[in-house]
From TrEMBL:
EC number(s) on file: 2.3.2.26
EC supergroup of this enzyme: transferase
PANTHER family linked to this entry: UBIQUITIN-PROTEIN LIGASE E3B (PTHR45700:SF3), UBIQUITIN-PROTEIN LIGASE E3C (PTHR45700)
InterPro entries: E3A/B/C-like, HECT_dom, Hect_E3_ubiquitin_ligase
Name of the featured protein: HECT-type E3 ubiquitin transferase
UniProt entry tagged with the keyword Transferase: yes
Superkingdom of origin: Eukaryota
């Protein structure tokens, strides 16, 4: 019925007036209202209804064509006008829009990469991109409209109870997350021109503007990544000031100095800080290293020694040999499923989460890369579904391919004799795990193969390590508030942890270097250094140089001006730089790839102070 009505409707041009007066349009809206009400009332059958409707290829395309016929950007201006002028913010056209968005949310969850990006089933990538633009603008305007209205009802509460807003927002966040995993839109596609000025938006936040905070909570992607990093740092600075004021009265009772033996670095760190309060973690922690002879190492901890402490603890704990983390096929880290055989493993994961949270809190860049399906759990967005099946490709490509085969299998799946269970090799012993209760006794059929694929994906990426993830996340959020973390996508969160992955910006480094011991920017050795880095070193060697000095191969997110302590070059013996005939390229290359014994003076570094000597 609806297909026939759409075909008839498309023979005539849809106008704004027809949205409210045309009988054919109203008839289509009534049918979509019926389905939309079914979805809302019969929640247990929601997925089955959406699945059945999605099988009608022409329905999705017809709804999409209908929206495009209303006006530019899917009739954005016209639909907003209807919303603003209607006291109840309701019109049958919104049921049609919600049904379309619910179907798109379902498709964005179940379509694999082959179907969405190559085959472009249901909608083309260009259509998905246009839909994102429409949703982004529409959701932004709905928030603005409600906060600009003078009513006794809280705008936030009104939006939370607004079914149209919730449906559109859910799809928007789902598509943004899918885009962050594999892009199908331009980089600037998600930005809103009205909030392009980060300084004015930050000023609104400083004034505790409720609309600005709600925009940041609901659609943070409308600001650039670097603007959100600046906002995060502003929040952290405010948090530090608050903690500092609170701790001033406890100064005599607060312990912030710890001795750590290098021979038992992780053990000492765990025992010293495992029960420390959030106040201790958020304030300055002083570390004194004890060497192998039992003597305290010389040095004043001005963030540099603590930075080394954080980096050494993470290097040890994220090492797969430590048995807490495993490595995926593409060299990213996630909690080991057999880490539960380690004593106090849950307390250890909570502690490691705090260490990572402290690193981000203090802008300490770490040379670790976490698996996307693991990082995703640090971001706690509500009411947003995502596909664990897509995550599976990062963990187990073979299993992903096998499940994909089952998904597209035309024959009788029951002939494959699959059950809701999985066999795994645990320390040389094959163990069978049920992915649903009594799963080893339940056969997979054509009717439930999608459920099987979903259950298997959830088990592999979450269920078997859920306790480790829970404790790690709790530890991380001891320092990093959920509303801060939720401002970022999974790839962006990885950048917060490990810094900028692009080539070292030498001009930025030159502008933010401190010279000591007689060196200055026009000194011959300094000129040779920059010339060697720029002309002789490859991108990989420049990263190694940065790692040699700072212990990280990546630059800070906001550039080297935010490096703490600042990048410093110190001259130890001024007579040496005047020697002639030395190959500077060879000397500087040797400092990152020393492979021979030499009596020559070679450059050295103190990574805890970001110091090149």
């Amino acid at each position: 019925i609806i297909r026939a009505k759409f075909e008839k409707l498309f023979h005539s041009k849809t106008t704004t007036d027809k949205l409210t007066t045309d009988e054919l349009t109203q008839s289509i809206c009534r049918i979509t209202t019926f389905y939309q009400k079914l979805i809302q009332i019969l929640m247990e059958l929601r997925l089955q209804i959406l699945c059945a409707l999605s099988l009608q290829d022409s329905l999705i395309s017809s709804l999409w064509q209908f929206l495009n016929n209303i006006g530019p950007t899917c009739g954005l201006k016209e639909l907003l006008k209807i919303y603003e002028t209607n006291k109840e913010n309701y019109h049958p056209i919104f049921d049609l829009l919600q049904l379309f968005c619910n179907l798109c949310s379902y498709l964005a969850t179940v379509l694999d990469e082959e179907e969405m990006y190559k085959e472009q089933k249901y909608l083309t990538l260009e259509s998905w991109s246009q839909l994102c633009l429409f949703l982004n603008q529409f959701v932004y305007r709905l928030i603005r409209i409600e906060f600009e209205r003078t009513t006794t009802t809280s705008p936030k509460l009104k939006l939370e109870n607004n079914q149209l807003y919730k449906t559109l927002h859910q799809l928007l966040i789902l598509l943004h997350e899918r885009n962050s995993r594999k892009s199908f839109t331009p980089d600037s596609h998600w930005l809103i021109r009205e909030v392009k000025s980060s300084s004015s938006f930050m000023a609104d936040l400083e004034r505790d503007d409720s609309c600005a905070f709600y925009l940041l909570e609901q659609i943070p992607h409308i600001l650039t990544f670097k603007d959100r990093v600046k906002i995060l740092q502003m929040f952290i600075e405010h948090d530090k000031e608050k903690e500092c004021n609170e701790v001033s009265s406890l100064r005599h009772h607060l312990r912030n100095y710890y001795e750590i033996h290098r021979t038992n670095l992780f053990g000492d760190a765990f025992q010293a800080l495992r029960n420390a309060s959030s106040t201790v973690w958020k304030n300055t922690i002083r570390i004194s290293f004890i060497n192998q002879q039992g003597l305290a190492e010389a040095g004043i901890d001005q963030n540099g020694i603590f930075k080394e402490f954080i980096q050494e603890v993470t290097r040890q704990t994220f090492d797969p040999a430590f048995n807490l983390f495993k490595v995926t096929e593409n060299r990213t880290l996630y909690p080991s499923p057999i880490s539960d055989r380690t004593e106090n493993y849950l307390h250890l994961f909570n502690f490691i989460g705090k260490i990572l949270g402290k690193a981000v809190y203090e802008q300490i860049v770490l040379d670790i890369e976490l698996a996307p399906f693991f990082l995703r759990h640090l971001i706690s967005r509500k009411n947003v579904n995502y596909s664990c099946f897509d995550d599976l490709m990062f963990l187990d490509r073979d299993l992903y391919n096998n499940l994909n085969f089952i998904k597209h299998y035309d024959g009788d799946v029951s002939s494959l004799t699959l059950t809701y269970s999985i066999d795994e090799d645990v320390l040389g012993e094959v163990v069978t795990y049920d992915i649903i209760p009594c799963g080893r006794h339940i056969n997979v059929t054509n009717d439930d193969k999608i459920v099987y694929i979903h259950r298997m994906s959830v088990y592999r990426t979450y269920t078997r390590i859920k306790n480790q993830i829970k404790m790690f996340t709790e530890g991380f959020k001891t320092l990093m508030k959920p509303e801060w973390v939720n401002m970022f996508s999974v790839p962006e969160l990885q950048q917060l942890i490990s810094g900028e992955s692009s080539d070292v910006d030498l001009e930025d480094l030159k502008s933010n270097v401190v010279y000591q011991g007689g060196y200055h920017r026009t000194h011959p050795v300094i000129k040779w250094l920059w010339q060697t880095l720029e002309q002789d070193f490859s991108r990989e060697e420049r990263a190694l140089f940065l790692r040699f000095v700072t212990s990280s191969s990546r630059a800070p997110l906001l550039g080297f001006r935010s490096l703490n302590p600042p990048f410093t070059i110190r001259c130890l013996e001024s007579s040496e730089h005047e020697e002639e005939g030395d190959s500077l390229g060879r000397i500087f290359r040797n400092m990152v790839t020393i492979n021979r014994t030499s009596s020559e003076r070679l450059p050295s570094s103190s990574t805890c102070f970001n110091l090149l000597k």
